[in-house]
């Protein structure tokens, strides 16, 4: 008979112990927000976690999550007014962690809608535009997306954006192709960034599904974020009314203003990814036996668990401090770039160690951790690569720009 620690989680309870929050960041939230996150955690563990692997394998999105999240009134949690719950930056970040620890695609889906879609309208929309779109998006009756990246343009979007916008009376004519656009296969509206032919400035437009000249094609063959429904968008003389041009999105500086806030969200998502991998590795180590004892009894396994926890805890606390700065309106671009650079790198390391704990079983979907190792690669790259973010930090440190 093998010996097992008395407090080990065997999987018999639908909700595992909250071991990944080692410094108890939840204690920073008021009681009602902690209770709401507990409800989110219970729903995700009981209804989504048991089916998430088959959705990942089939590259299908679990549509049942949308009404559940809507019922809990979670969309727009860091915004106030317009039907948004106004829970604040820290709650919003820890919510992304709860989603990512089940599957990173869930957090990326939510971020595409809540952070990028709603966030762009909240930051760049007129009062009328906010009143028109934010309330149904907060109720998740309308799902949003964000279209910046193109087939040949990623980090160089400021200078190289090829999608064009031409004013024609009371409408704008959009032409171009967007790539990697999350939620775009099924969402209701997409924020499209295009370069105005008249003045060369990058501007933002809300394109609603069903608009003539707007087509989407699901991307296939992904080995990461398979649950996330990414699309190739084609804009072929796509006409949108002037009323759909975001009033305060008139240059790439406005685009960057949106990305500055959502880059923190991506750091939270990465921290949640590492935490999910760590928690699976911890549970596995306490129940997997070799040489007549749980592998958690071996020093090298405990060392890996401690290293994973250190990475995850450092990442979460860095994000929590940035959430405080963001809430106060004091967060700087270089501060969030440092977090995105560090947390995604630490997560890459963490998921690799988690797979190591599983040995050969780590490459089997039945043991979950391989999803995290694959998905961490995508999060490492989007919303600013490690190299781009390091140059932003380096510029702030030296006063010298090393961008080409």
Automatic annotation (TrEMBL):
Domain Acyl-CoA dehydrogenase/oxidase C-terminal residues, every copy: 258-397
Top-rank lineage group of the source organism: Bacteria
Pfam family, one: Acyl-CoA_dh_M
InterPro entries per the UniProt record, alphabetical: ACX4-like, Acyl-CoA_DH_CS, Acyl-CoA_Oxase/DH_mid-dom, Acyl-CoA_Oxase/DH_mid-dom_sf, AcylCo_DH-like_C, AcylCo_DH/oxidase_C, AcylCoA_DH/ox_N, AcylCoA_DH/ox_N_sf
Chain ranges of the Acyl-CoA oxidase/dehydrogenase middle domain: 145-238
Cofactor: FAD
Keyword terms: FAD, Flavoprotein, Oxidoreductase
Every Acyl-CoA dehydrogenase/oxidase N-terminal domain range: 31-141
Similarity-based family: Belongs to the acyl-CoA dehydrogenase family.
This protein's name: Acyl-CoA dehydrogenase family protein
């Amino acid at each position: 008979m093998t010996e097992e620690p008395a407090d080990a989680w065997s999987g018999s309870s639908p909700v595992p112990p909250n071991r990944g929050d080692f410094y108890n960041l939840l204690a920073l939230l008021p009681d009602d927000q902690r209770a709401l996150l507990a409800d989110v955690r219970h729903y995700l563990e009981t209804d989504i976690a048991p089916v998430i692997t088959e959705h990942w394998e089939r590259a299908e999105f679990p549509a049942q999550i949308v009404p559940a999240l809507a019922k809990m009134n979670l969309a727009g949690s860091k915004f106030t007014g317009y039907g948004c719950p106004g829970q604040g930056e820290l709650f919003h970040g820890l919510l992304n962690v709860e989603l990512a620890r089940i599957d990173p695609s869930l957090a990326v889906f939510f971020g595409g809608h809540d952070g990028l879609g709603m966030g762009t309208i909240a930051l760049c929309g007129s009062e009328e535009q906010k009143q028109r779109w934010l309330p149904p998006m907060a109720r998740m009756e309308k799902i949003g997306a964000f279209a910046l990246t193109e087939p040949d343009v990623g980090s160089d979007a400021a200078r190289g954006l090829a999608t064009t916008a031409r004013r024609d009376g009371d409408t704008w004519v959009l032409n171009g192709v967007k790539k990697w656009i999350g939620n775009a296969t099924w969402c209701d509206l997409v924020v499209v960034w295009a370069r105005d032919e008249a003045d060369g400035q990058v501007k933002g437009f809300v394109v609603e599904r069903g608009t003539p000249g707007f087509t989407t094609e699901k991307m296939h063959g992904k080995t990461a974020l398979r649950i996330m429904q990414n699309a190739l968008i084609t804009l072929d003389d796509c006409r949108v009314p002037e009323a759909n041009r975001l009033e305060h999105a008139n240059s790439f500086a406005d685009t960057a203003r949106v990305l500055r806030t959502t880059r923190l969200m991506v750091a939270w998502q990465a921290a949640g990814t590492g935490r999910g991998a760590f928690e699976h590795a911890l549970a596995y180590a306490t129940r997997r036996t070799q040489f007549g004892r749980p592998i958690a009894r071996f020093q090298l396994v405990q060392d890996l668990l401690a290293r994973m926890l250190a990475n995850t805890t450092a990442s979460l606390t860095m994000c929590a401090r940035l959430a405080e700065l963001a809430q106060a309106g004091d967060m700087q671009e270089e501060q969030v770039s440092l977090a995105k650079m560090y947390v995604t790198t630490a997560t890459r390391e963490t998921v690799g160690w988690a797979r190591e704990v599983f040995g050969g079983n780590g490459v089997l979907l039945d043991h979950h951790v391989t999803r995290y190792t694959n998905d961490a690669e995508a999060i490492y790259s989007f919303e600013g690569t490690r190299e781009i973010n390091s140059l932003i930090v380096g510029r702030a440190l030296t006063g010298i720009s090393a961008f080409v």
